[in-house]
Specification:
Blueprint lengths: L4 H11 L8 E3 L1 H7 L2 E6 L9 H10 L3 H6 L1 E4 L3 H13 L3 E5 L5 H9 L3 E4 L4 H15 L2 E2 L6 H17 L5 E5 L4 H13 L4 E7 L4 H6 L22 H10 L2 E5 L1 H15 L9 H8 L1 H4 L3 E6 L6 H14 L3 E9 L4 H11 L3 E8 L9 E9 L3 H14 L3 E2 L14
Parallel strand pairs: 2-10, 3-4, 3-6, 4-5, 7-8, 7-10, 8-9
Antiparallel strand pairs: 1-2, 11-13, 11-14, 12-13
Length: 412
């Protein structure tokens, strides 16, 4: 390994004044929830909402004058693309960005807004990379790799410098892992400053490529993940070597855990993060015993999440916590029955979102109607209070969205 702490320090000097020093602050509520002392590094507050600006700028600043005039090409699922496009525009360097077709539209449009030429190609980063190299040769451009480049890695490592300057007593770092640029740079910096610190990467169960590579296993990944920013099938060679030498462990998290972490950060910290940025918190929540009582730094690596996806996560989270529920209520098919139902709900202080009747497509007895009601509640205890009120009134009620959709009265 040739990259050193001094390289990261030189990178920090190069970008000083050009990139904001993002907040690195404790979270009292997340600390109470996890049992660790949680420190959050808000890289989602960068101008392009991602840490990728750091490495992109360090690389762009290192280019010779002729390379700057000719322009650069990069392949990215979004955040590296925006970092390259934004800082290339500021430096007057033409930029061509190749993005996989699955890239969220918000990232595509933001990249174009920074003046870059965007080409959508392929279903994966690997396919996009092949096209980027073809165009690099055709147009005589300089290729800016999103993670497997020492200048880029050194730029990402400046995050660890800032975190340990602000909180020198940090005992562990939980870092998202895709191609490995972020954790490699942070590991070089953190090990140089504090050799005993624990450095732990986090990947998704669907894309465990770095963990598989470290263990010498064939790389098998899923079709897609909500954390598309770290959905990398081919780890970098430079980053793999650094991670083998400096990183203590890599943890895996499930999709539902990532969703829950995104929602928790929104609700507790009032901060918006994309899936890849939430994996550290997801891992901390899943391994509370391992980190209990320790001071743990989490990198919120980016905030470029599609609003439709965010809205869906909010709705699903509310449903899982019992704050948004769907009930099926059997009522007699005669005047006044619906009024009885609304009266029960009003007395229970439940807010009705939607109501629908079903007469034909049901196996209920004739003269009985199935009423489907979507409600806002205060949570599971309030939901059980509502179910108890329906039981007391003689209205059979089911929760069709639970694992067991049979009548829930036996659970009350």
């Amino acid at each position: 390994m040739t990259l050193t702490l001094d390289d990261v320090r030189r990178a920090a000097s190069a970008i000083r004044g050009r990139i904001p020093r993002t907040p690195c602050a404790p979270s009292r509520t997340l600390s109470e929830i996890t049992g660790a002392e949680v420190i959050l590094k808000f890289e989602n507050l960068q101008f392009t909402a991602s840490f990728k600006e750091r490495g992109a700028l360090v690389k762009l600043l290192s280019l010779a004058e002729g390379e700057r005039r000719a322009g650069v090409v990069a392949m990215s699922a979004g955040n590296h693309a925006q970092g390259v496009a934004y800082h290339a525009q500021r430096l007057g360097i033409p930029a061509l960005i190749i993005m996989p077709r699955f890239t969220p539209n918000v990232k595509v449009e933001q990249t174009r807004a920074f003046g870059a030429e965007v080409v959508l190609h392929g279903e994966t980063l690997d396919e996009a990379a092949l096209r980027a190299h073809e165009l690099m040769v055709q147009r005589k451009l300089t290729f800016l790799h999103p993670y497997d480049d020492e200048k880029v890695i050194a730029g990402q490592g400046t995050i660890a410098l800032e975190m340990l300057e602000d909180h020198p007593d940090l005992e562990a770092l939980l870092v998202p892992v895709g191609g490995g640029g972020l954790i490699s740079g942070m590991a070089v910096a953190a090990r140089g400053l504090k050799p005993a610190i624990d450095i732990i990467g986090v990947e998704t169960v669907r894309f465990p490529s770095m963990l598989q590579a470290i263990r010498g296993l064939p790389i098998h990944c899923g079709a897609a993940t909500f954390a598309e920013g770290i959905a990398v099938k081919q780890p970098g060679q430079i980053t793999l070597g650094i991670i083998r030498q400096l990183v203590d462990d890599i943890l895996l998290v499930e999709e539902n855990d990532i969703e829950a972490a995104v929602l928790l950060l929104l609700e507790v910290e009032k901060t918006v993060v994309e899936g890849a940025a939430a994996v550290g918190l997801a891992a901390l929540l899943n391994h509370r015993k391992r980190f209990r009582g320790r001071k743990v730094g989490l990198v919120l690596s980016g905030g470029n999440i599609d609003l439709l996806i965010l809205a869906t996560i909010i709705q699903r989270g509310l449903a899982r916590s019992g704050r948004l529920v769907r009930l099926r209520v059997e009522i007699p098919d005669h005047p006044g029955s619906l009024a009885d139902v609304t009266r029960i709900l009003g007395a229970a202080n439940a807010n009705i979102v939607e109501v629908s009747h079903q007469r034909a497509f049901t196996r209920l007895a004739l003269k009985t109607v199935q009423l489907e009601v979507i409600l806002e509640t205060r949570g599971l205890p309030h939901l059980h209070e509502i179910l108890g009120a329906f039981r007391a009134a003689g209205f059979p009620t089911t929760l069709p969205d639970t694992d067991d959709s049979r009548n829930t009265q036996a659970d009350l």
